[in-house]
Design brief:
By secondary structure, the protein is an all-alpha fold. The protein has one domain: Urease accessory protein UreF, CATH 1.10.4190. The chain is about 70% helix and about 0% strand. The longest helix has 23 residues.
Length: about 220
């Protein structure tokens, strides 16, 4: 039976990215709240409505938007030195020590496992840079890589919110469904990988990440 080659290639790409971004892939994403734990402790996020609004800001004006840019820049980078230059920008743009720890540790874990199985040398890049470089090496579509990363990123934070707030499974999935509707637009806006567009106007999310470091009791690493 004949096979539609482009469709088969897209399916292979989806399956590879689904594996890389699965909760089973050992990057430990479940351990990081991205400052959300501190925001809940401060009373800035108290219910599902507030969680959705908080994550919308993260996606459109904070780390979600910037991570999508970094993925695109790493995907388009030509050679190891160019990828390393993108990574240096990613580290410099981390708004706090905890944000840098989060992206560095997940990136190292992703790089180690992906290199062991798929080959190459991802070194010790930050998470979005490592993913973008790996996707480029595996000739995975940029738009799909960005979109699936962003949905996974949001899904992890919703799961964190469900451990911290009175947000049930159905409400959590409804929040993710609404946010996913914006994911493709963010991917399109950042596809050029222009790092001059890096910005962060979701200031409260950065402040929360800074305050997490000194929380008296906490369950998440960031």
């Amino acid at each position: 039976m004949a096979t539609d080659a482009p469709t088969a290639m897209r399916t292979d790409a989806v399956l590879t990215l689904a594996q890389w971004l699965s909760p089973a892939y050992p990057v430990g994403a479940f351990a990081y709240s991205h400052g959300l734990e501190a925001a809940v402790a401060a009373g800035w996020v108290q219910d599902g409505e507030a969680l959705g609004a908080w994550l919308t800001e993260v996606l459109e004006s904070g780390a979600g938007f910037n991570d999508a840019l970094l993925i695109a820049a790493a995907w388009r980078a030509q050679g190891g030195e160019a990828v390393a230059a993108v990574d240096a920008v990613a580290r410099a743009f981390a708004a706090s020590k905890e944000r840098r720890i989060e992206t560095d540790q997940q990136g190292r874990a992703f790089g180690a496992v992906t290199t062991a199985i798929w080959g190459g040398d991802l070194a010790a890049f930050t998470y979005p840079v490592a993913l973008g470089a790996a996707a480029s090496r595996a000739t995975l579509p940029l738009d799909l890589t960005q979109a699936m990363y962003l949905q996974t990123f949001l899904s992890n934070l919703i799961a964190a919110g469900q451990r911290l707030l009175p947000v049930g499974q159905t409400e959590g999935q409804a929040i993710l469904h609404r946010l996913t509707a914006r994911v493709a637009d963010v991917a399109t806006e950042t596809a050029g990988g222009d790092l001059d567009r890096l910005s962060a106007t979701a200031f409260l999310t950065d402040i929360a990440a800074m305050q997490h470091e000194t929380l008296r009791t906490r369950i998440f690493r960031t």
